Amino acid sequence: MYFQQGGGVPTPALNQIFDKYRESPEENPDGIGIEGAMRYLGDIEVELDEVTCLAIAELLQSPSMGEFTREGFVNGWRSTGCDTVEKMAAHAANLRARIPTEPDLFRRVYRFTFPLCLVQGQRNLQFEIAVEQWNLFFTPPKGGVAWNTRTTPWLDWWVEFLEGRGKRPVNKDLWQQVEVFMRKCHEDEEFGWWSEDGAWPGAIDDFVTWVRERRGKAEGAMEVE
Amino acid sequence: MAPRIPPTPHKDDLGETWAFLQSGIENVMVKLDDGVDMKTYMALYTAVHNFCTSHKAVSGQAIQAQRGAHLLGEELYKKLGEYLSGYLENVYTQSTSHAEEALLGFYMREWSRYTTAAKYINHLFRYLNRHWVKREIDEGKKSVYDVYTLHLVRWRDDFFKNVHEKVMDAVLNLVEKQRNGETIEQSQIKSIVDSFVSLGLDEADPTKSTLDVYRSFFAKPFLAATRTYYEEESRQFVAENSVVEYMKKAEARLDEEKARVGLYLHPDIAKHLTETCLDVLVTAHSELLRDEFQPLLDNERQEDLARMYRLLSRIKDGLDPLRTKFEAHVRKAGLAAVEKVAAEGESFEPKMYVDALLSVHTRYHSLVKEAFNGESEFVRSLDNACREFVNRNKICKSGSTKTPELLARYTDSLLKKGSKAAEESELEEMLVQIMTVFKYIEDKDVFQKFYSKMLAKRLVHVSSVSDDAETSMISKLKEACGFEYTNKLQRMFQDIQISKDLNASYKDWLDKSFLDDDDRKKLVDSHFQILGTGFWPLNAPSTDFLAPPEIVKTAERFQKFYFDKHNGRKLTWLWQLCKGEIKANYIKNTKVPYTFQVSTYQMGILLLFNESDTLTYPDIQKATTLTPEILDPNLSIFLKAKVLTISPEGSKPGPGSTFKLNYNFKNKKIKVNLNIQIKSEQKVETDDTHKTIEEDRKLLLQSAIVRIMKSRKKMKHVQLVQEVIHQVKSRFPPQVPDIKKNIEALMEKDYIERLDGDEIAYIA
């Protein structure tokens, strides 16, 4: 209701755009497949390996990577008030600028990525896919937020830590909490906010210990020098 | 001899009246012993009366008359007061020539004379009291008293104020003498106390008395002197004697002072006196006393500890430091006792360990009871200490599950046939002791696991020493941990009972069934136990086994009977638990053939030799399908007992060996037990038990989490963890990381989910 009132974009215009990118109108009249999606993203000037692409997927509620449904497409764009490809491109550009600076938007896109990237039939994200997405989200070049600081290469250590414990698949809770953790690390790199009895997933608890040990060793090494 | 009476005065002449009265009063005051005759007395009384009423008659005007009566009464009252002051001044002058006990004597004599006289004089002035004084008081005039009280006030203000210090000095000197062990005239002090109390006048309400005078002029200096005396005495005593001696002294002094109150002091002082004594005798030396606590504990000086307890329990926070020391001491003692057992190496008996734990508990339990009055805070310290050393000591260094395991093993050794506790009552006593240790165990689930395993064995092998003892132990556990804890144990008992009935009806069924003669001849005397899978901690056999045909037939026959009765049930044969006896008819050197007590596996091996005297290892393995892990040790048992011989001689059972029946077998006993548990089996069993404990704990944690979340729907993560700990701790002390792990596991299974702000929600 809200979106309809706010946007006021006529549905036919959006349907027309949607129809243009369908691959097989007979077999799949209400869906855009991978090829169409790539073409469409190209037209609105969004690259496939940037966070903005995932933001578009979130906006249009893609069922999986590189797929759009008519319902999601129409509802999504109607809520923004965009009814031409040009406006959509402009909106995408706007998203690109906002993602690194608006934590709520960032979190929404980040969380949507988990179901989006799941291999069909699996509950947990494969380790390699998770790492790929973290690299996207937690470094600036592709529109993410940097998680490496001057004192601590957080993202690199996080990945190294997980590799060390056997590249286990990442469950939804861990995926979501990593982003919360990332923000906390920016607040205080010395873990003043962390407690053993806190609600963090076990993997993050272990990581905190791991980071502390690692820092301890580094300091020890310096002393030896 | 009555004194000469002056002529009756004119009733309205004050000077004349007073002069008349004064001489009468003087007589009462000074020569009361000589007596006052009725006539004189009446004359004096009348003089007062006449004086007070005189103006009424003269003026005839009511108001004036009253005013006149007032004025005249007042004059008389004033004159009396002045007379008393004068009299007391004289008494004071006399008193100055007395000191110490003589002064006390003097004071009491004068007091007694004065107060006696006061009573009479009060009587003489009754008319004044009743009218003038009453009216004055009714009108709220201060410092007007009835005539008796006036005497006391004058005594207090004109005499007492001047001598009380000297009197008290004398009193205190006497008390000090008594404290030093001399005999004194106590009654004198008692009189002084009473007189001081009598002087306590309530200015607001003359009918009441207060203890003000006693408190300020007696109690206060008395307490101060007491404090000084004991400060000095205790300081000196401590310097010259041991703390133990000092405690005796202090206790005796406290008793003495308490008795002193009853002997000659006013009870009002009791509380303050005790407080003063405690302060000086105990509080001031409490550090010293406490420092002695450890040595006394070390030397088990129960009586002295009891004395210290009694003394320190009477001062504020006196015992707290002792409790801490006591707890640490007991824990140390417990750890040391365990160390001793641990020094024996791996091979100690569970009994040794349990006895070590118990002995420490028993010793300090009785100390708490005898020396510390069974005080609940000391009981708590004892419990804390015991819980510590029972769960965390050298023997359970690898994990706190060792104590419950050993306790269960010890219990098993008592409840198993062949235990040394012969008497039933003795056994019961030991079970009670086991529960004492059990109470302190944190991993109660571990005890349960081991206990049920061993109970299962006792039941299956009919090796319980007594059903009553078994029942008693289970009801104790039930009492301690609830129905759920012992539910399965009780179901095991039921199964055994049901099996007994079942076997009886099987016998009947067998008699009625149509078996041919050959079958009847080969009938094996059998007994079956049906054990419910869910209740018994038993596993399926770890090896394949082809049972001997005789056994197979027997089993099949029973199965037919059983399935007729209970359609749709499934039976699994637990061969590893079955056993039997076989007769060795082939050995000819005895009249009565040997009977071998064997396991079913052993039976399977031995019966093969009915067909052939010599068999190779592969023959046996093929016929029985037993795995080498089971087959080899059993063959070794036969070799060791010389039931079989091996070739090549002296080799170990293996694919290359051949076995031969030994016709020359010899044994002292006719019944030979070959069914011996194999060491490695026991080890595997223990490891298995520990593994199932881990699994069960995971389940317990997860079901607790689900249960809590189901009822709360939404909850903070921290609270959830706390609630889980609360629910589970009666079984084992859960670790926070384990709880978190299981919360995560349930999130993954979509039972619960995380909301923002570390809240957990139940997913219906």
Automatic annotation (TrEMBL), chain A:
Pfam families: Cullin_binding. It comes from the Eukaryota. Gene3D superfamilies: Cullin, PONY binding domain, EF-hand. Neddylation of cullins play an essential role in the regulation of SCF-type complexes activity. InterPro entries: DCN-prot (IPR014764), DCN1-like_PONY (IPR042460), PONY_dom (IPR005176). Residues 9-212 form the DCUN1 domain. The lineage of its organism: Eukaryota, Fungi, Dikarya, Ascomycota, Pezizomycotina. This is Defective in cullin neddylation protein.
From TrEMBL, chain B:
It holds the Pfam family Cullin. It comes from the Eukaryota. Coiled coil: none annotated. Residues 402-639 form the Cullin family profile domain. This is Cullin. InterPro entries: Cullin (IPR045093), Cullin-like_AB (IPR059120), Cullin_homology (IPR016158), Cullin_homology_sf (IPR036317), Cullin_N (IPR001373), Cullin_neddylation_domain (IPR019559), Cullin_repeat-like_dom_sf (IPR016159), WH-like_DNA-bd_sf (IPR036388). Belongs to the cullin family. Gene3D superfamilies: Cullin Repeats, Cullin, Chain C, Domain 2, Winged helix-like DNA-binding domain superfamily/Winged helix DNA-binding domain.
